[in-house]
Description:
The chain is an alpha+beta fold.
Amino acid sequence: MNDLIQLILSRRSIRKFKQTPISKKDLELIVEAGLAAPSGKNQQTWKFTVITSTLEIQKLADAIGKVLSRENYNFYKPTALIIPSNLKESPWGRDDNACALQNIFLAAHSLQIGSVWINQLKDICDHELIRPILDSFEIPKNHVVYGLAALGYPETEVKQIERKGLIHFVE
Ligand SMILES: Cc1cc2nc3c(=O)[nH]c(=O)nc-3n(C[C@H](O)[C@H](O)[C@H](O)COP(=O)(O)O)c2cc1C
């Protein structure tokens, strides 16, 4: 089995992180992998915002917690967030950003960095408690965040899970 397939097959979502910071060099590499994702009509209308301040991360988590009535919400206490955003009106924004996120997860995994998709922002980006925080991160007002990556070094090993799904060859 080649290294890439091995990497894909061994990735798991990580929800418990060490508080060791991720280097800027590694974060840049991981975002570069996101930028290498395919995009509808090659529009590449995305932006990738990287947050490494745990204070800023928790500020966003607190606002999400308030809006969604989730007590003590914290994104699982990651040491970094990569927030892909895309034009609200792009017909491919959600798909493009999902492709980018998978590249981000795999690139992170290749560097022994754990990650998980965070889905909570997608319907509340324009909420009065959320948009000012996105503004402060310089996420454009005409962008939406469909999903984001919470990242950190894994605290514990996570076992593989059963993979369901059908495969059918027509030959
Ligand atoms: C569209 C999408 C939304 C997700 N949202 C969340 C989320 O908000 N929080 C979370 O902990 N995991 C989230 N996940 C991760 C899934 O729960 C996870 O991928 C799934 O349980 C399979 O586990 P694995 O990633 O370890 O293979 C999301 C995954 C996808 C693809």
